């Protein structure tokens, strides 16, 4: 097919050559500076990468690792750099929609053929691997919208359309830059240049963060919640969005993963907080200074600082400003910084700009999202990405990305368990110092001492910044360290000076400035401490705990100080919380930590986010769950809230753990329910039954809600197999009433009953205890008025679990049995109750009768194992054994199921019991029934037995079997006796099995051969006896 741009497209294509000079794929140029795109799978194993252009010129291309390595495994896109100018190239229009008509290229005898297609009509594209990398263009243009590729490495042909292909943020930013620069749809040329300038600035900033190892693209996972927050921010009228979280939590990584959704439409300025000038008093002035410095280091032919500032003022709706690391901005004083922040937010909103901020906190509340580390699902993904042991994914505190990174740096795959926080930082820093020492000929101990001196400066300056002069002064005797400490990512260099990279590292070093035996006087130290010193004190305590010092007195003193201090209790509270987080062996001090949590929960001290503190601590799992319980115990829930949480209306489902009040604690508990649900539910079950003085507490109801929402409702742990205490019975009654009243199908009837009793339909009660205790009688009246339908059956299953109502529910079930209307799921619920006193006498005759004459075959079958539950009650066992024996003698389609119940009874019952003897007498009956019955019975008889009496009984019936059973059963019995070692006397075995073998030899030697093979594996002695037996030899010859 002719194409007006065929020559241009062909000149843009390059061929990928293998070592034999054969073409194994293609690529094409995407800018005039030698940048090309091809399929990653084509070039990944080539060394070197040789390419040939349209004119026959050959070049050695290099992989642009920065744009290729992050995500090539799922995009199959590689970016190459070819050392030549390429004025003929194909621009990338990222705004072109996929459904448009497109042109693909086929290779025919080294010539290119163009074919126009409609993508949505292509169901099975076909092209050879050697054509991979050829461009797909928008028909009638030179714009490349995709390339021929391989889908997911499955060797399936694919049309890789760039707009739909998953790409890393780095690659998306490159595509956006090239699109805006070479094929923008923007009519205003000046705006196009400004957009291109902004894209270049963002790309440089992201690349710089990657090279500094602040950004770790391969080790962070998608976070749907953050993606949703940023998408909503882009679409809505909000002007400010904050991503907040502690240092090292991954705020920058999350932001950059989603940044392309903004840079595609908005002129974006990405500014690292450390690069903002602290001396300027307004945000516009800081931005202007930053852009001025950018234009000095990266000059632009046509863009000036005035152009950028005019863009902000004249087209604010087209602009986004990102300040990454608000806490890293050098600040003169908290008051000055807070004032600057407030004025900056007002300016942004007044202008109509959009502003995204990342930081540890903000001086005033702003729209945004608090990042608490990896969720359970992300932890599993991150553990794989960091190549750490899979079991680490269940250790709560490793949700902190920085901890995973440090373990990875220390070769975590070889660790049997994660290190505590203090030894982790200490070991990591020691190895860093050793590595730097190897490069500089400066001893590692001296490097460590220099870092401690710098940390002392942090304490006195109350900041994590050093002026360039101060930094050089500390290293004046070792100037070679200045650049290496920055290169090793211990410090960040900025126009404002030098800043330590991680707050954690700074706090750790400040803690190291104290000797391990330092006696801390909280009353003297806290009032005069700086913020940086308070950050280091928990690490000093962590060191003491790791070294085995007893900290009971120190922690108790701090707790006392928190309670009696008027002015500094907030600072002391934060210190205590950080100590809890970093402390080694904290279970030794659990009672002190528990007291702190109680005080916090009851509002005696300043409220902090205790849930994440607990989750990130080194406390054992049971102790963490105890503290979670304390944190949730004081929550106040109204009846309407309880109903909404226990409702099964999926259209308006209210998830308790996702509610705003106490959200950090609930989210932390939710992570445990994701990573280890069984163990977590077991502990929450203990909350369910924790009741004092016969009063329902809020934690009982909260436990019920959590279990109901996170666990299958029909598996809710109201354990019917265990005799309930009076308190537990009362709790079960209330909780089941709460669950049932929330059911949509019963709400109307409950309101009607309430209206009759109280003259109102409103659920208004004095307190939650009055509400919970008023429900059971209301619910029982509602139940009695229901017709015998599916709704009533469902309610019966629930009410059966309430000890007080059990007999009444059993009578209801008996009525259903009589009517032949009992459903399958109801019969399954009876198993836990059949053997209970007062119920056994009612249920057993009815179940036996239903098994004999019931209408529903599946329900009859289901009733057999429910009925025949042999236990410790000898009277019940005898009654059940008699019924089972009668059913077996009667014979029916259920013989196989009766056999299973009989065998189970024989295993459980004592050989001296009457029930055992009754069941044992049924063995000859079953041995003459259908194959399933006699085979299961033979297996039981031949299975090894330790009880002497039962073993003797088994051997007796085996011998009876050899004398009385027909040939087919006998053959199976021979094999089982040889296999299962119930009889160990070889002579006895030979005596028993020989007649059967001789009997079969009269017709065929197949069974004889099979027995010989079996004996050869199991017992050589018997094998030789059988092989050399004269009678058998004679029959074999015949």
From TrEMBL:
Q: Which domain of life is it from?
A: Bacteria
**InterPro entries per the record?**
P-loop_NTPase (IPR027417), Peptidase_S1_PA (IPR009003), Peptidase_S1_PA_chymotrypsin (IPR043504)
**Signal peptide span per the entry?**
none
Mind telling me what this protein is named?
Serine protease
């Amino acid at each position: 097919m002719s194409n007006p741009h065929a020559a241009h497209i062909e000149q843009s294509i390059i061929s990928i050559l293998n070592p034999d000079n054969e073409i194994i794929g293609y690529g094409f140029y995407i800018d005039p500076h030698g940048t090309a795109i091809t399929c990653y799978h084509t070039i990944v194993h080539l060394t070197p990468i040789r390419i040939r252009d349209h004119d026959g010129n050959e070049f050695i291309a290099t992989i642009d690792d920065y744009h290729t390595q992050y995500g090539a495994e799922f995009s199959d896109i590689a970016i190459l750099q070819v050392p030549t100018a390429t004025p003929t190239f194909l621009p990338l229009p990222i705004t072109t929609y996929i459904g448009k008509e497109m042109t693909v290229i086929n290779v025919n005898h080294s010539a290119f053929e163009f074919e126009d297609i409609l993508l949505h009509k292509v169901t099975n594209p076909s092209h050879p691997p050697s054509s991979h990398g050829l461009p797909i263009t928008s028909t009638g243009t030179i714009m490349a919208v995709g390339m021929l590729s391989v889908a997911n490495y499955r060797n399936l042909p694919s049309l890789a359309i760039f707009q739909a292909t998953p790409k890393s943020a780095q690659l998306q930013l490159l595509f956006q830059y090239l699109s805006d620069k070479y094929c923008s749809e923007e009519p205003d040329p000046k705006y196009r240049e400004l957009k291109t300038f902004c894209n270049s600035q963002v790309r440089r900033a992201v690349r710089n963060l990657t090279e500094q190892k602040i950004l770790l693209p391969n080790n962070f996972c998608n976070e749907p919640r953050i993606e949703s927050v940023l998408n909503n921010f882009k679409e809505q009228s909000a002007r400010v969005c904050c991503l907040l979280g502690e240092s090292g939590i991954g705020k920058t990584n999350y932001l950059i993963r989603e940044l392309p959704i903004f840079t595609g439409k908005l002129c974006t300025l990405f500014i690292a907080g450390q690069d903002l000038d602290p001396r300027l008093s307004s945000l516009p002035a800081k931005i202007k200074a930053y852009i001025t410095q950018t234009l000095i280091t990266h000059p632009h032919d046509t863009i000036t600082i005035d152009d950028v500032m005019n863009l902000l003022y004249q087209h604010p709706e087209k602009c986004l400003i990102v300040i990454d690391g608000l806490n890293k901005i050098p600040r003169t004083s908290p008051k000055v910084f807070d004032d600057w922040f407030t004025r900056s937010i007002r300016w942004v909103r007044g202008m109509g700009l959009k502003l995204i901020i990342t930081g540890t906190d903000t001086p005033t509340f702003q729209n945004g999202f608090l990042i608490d580390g990896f969720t359970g699902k992300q932890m599993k993904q991150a553990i794989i990405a960091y190549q750490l042991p899979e079991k680490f994914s269940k250790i709560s505190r490793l949700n902190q990305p920085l901890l995973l990174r440090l373990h990875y740096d220390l070769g975590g795959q070889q660790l049997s368990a994660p290190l505590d926080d203090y030894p982790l930082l200490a070991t990591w820093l020691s190895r860093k110092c050793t590595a730097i020492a190897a490069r500089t000929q400066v001893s590692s101990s001296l490097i460590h001492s220099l870092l401690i001196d710098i940390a002392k400066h942090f304490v006195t300056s109350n900041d994590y910044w050093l002026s360039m002069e101060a930094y050089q002064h500390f290293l004046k005797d070792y100037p070679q360290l200045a650049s290496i400490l920055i290169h090793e990512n211990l410090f960040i260099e900025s126009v404002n000076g030098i800043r330590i990279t991680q707050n954690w590292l700074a706090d750790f070093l400040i803690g190291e400035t104290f000797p391990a035996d330092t006696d801390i006087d909280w009353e003297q130290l806290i009032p005069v401490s700086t913020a940086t010193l308070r950050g280091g004190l928990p690490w000093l305590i962590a060191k003491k705990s790791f070294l085995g010092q007893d900290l009971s007195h120190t922690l108790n003193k701090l707790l006392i100080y928190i309670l009696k201090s008027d002015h500094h209790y907030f600072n002391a509270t934060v210190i205590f919380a950080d100590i809890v987080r970093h402390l080694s062996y904290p279970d030794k001090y659990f009672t002190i930590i528990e007291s702190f949590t109680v005080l916090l929960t009851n509002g005696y001290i300043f409220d902090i986010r205790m849930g994440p503190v607990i989750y990130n601590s080194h406390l054992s799992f049971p102790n963490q769950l105890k503290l979670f319980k304390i944190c949730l115990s004081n929550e106040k829930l109204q009846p309407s809230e309880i109903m909404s949480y226990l409702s099964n209306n999926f259209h308006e489902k209210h998830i308790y753990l996702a509610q705003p009040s106490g959200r950090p604690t609930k989210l932390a508990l939710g992570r445990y329910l994701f990573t280890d649900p069984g163990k977590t539910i077991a502990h929450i079950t203990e909350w369910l039954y924790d009741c004092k003085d016969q009063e329902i507490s809020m934690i009982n109801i909260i436990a019920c809600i959590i279990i109901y929402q996170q666990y299958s409702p029909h598996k809710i742990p109201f354990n019917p197999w265990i005799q309930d205490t009076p308190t537990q019975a009362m709790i079960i009654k209330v909780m089941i009433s709460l669950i049932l009243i929330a059911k949509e199908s019963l709400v109307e009837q409950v309101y009607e009953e309430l209206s009759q009793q109280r003259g109102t339909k409103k659920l208004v009660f004095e307190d939650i205890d009055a509400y919970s205790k008023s429900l059971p009688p209301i619910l029982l009246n509602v139940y009695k008025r229901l017709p015998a339908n599916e709704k009533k059956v469902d309610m019966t299953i629930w009410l059966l679990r309430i000890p007080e109502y059990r007999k009444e529910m059993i009578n209801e079930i008996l009525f259903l049995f009589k009517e032949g209307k009992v459903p399958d799921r109801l019969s399954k619920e009876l198993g836990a109750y059949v053997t209970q006193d007062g119920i056994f006498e009612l249920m057993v005759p009815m179940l036996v009768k239903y098994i004999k004459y019931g209408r529903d075959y599946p329900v009859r079958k289901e009733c057999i194992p429910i009925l025949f539950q042999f236990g410790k009650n000898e009277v019940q066992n005898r009654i059940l054994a008699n019924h089972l024996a009668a059913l077996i003698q009667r014979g029916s389609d259920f013989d196989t199921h009766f056999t299973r119940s009989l065998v189970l009874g024989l295993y459980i019952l004592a050989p001296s019991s009457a029930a055992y003897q009754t069941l044992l007498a049924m063995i000859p009956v079953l041995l003459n029934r259908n194959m399933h019955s006699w085979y299961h019975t033979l297996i039981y008889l031949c299975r090894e037995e330790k009880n002497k009496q039962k073993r003797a009984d088994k051997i007796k019936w085996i011998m009876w079997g050899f004398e009385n059973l027909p040939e087919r059963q006998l053959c199976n019995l021979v094999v089982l006796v040889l296999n299962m070692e119930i009889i160990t006397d070889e002579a006895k075995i030979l005596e028993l099995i020989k007649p059967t073998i001789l009997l079969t030899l009269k017709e065929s030697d197949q069974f004889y051969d099979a027995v010989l093979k079996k004996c050869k594996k199991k017992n050589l002695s018997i094998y030789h006896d059988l092989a050399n037996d004269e009678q058998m030899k004679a029959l074999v010859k015949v």
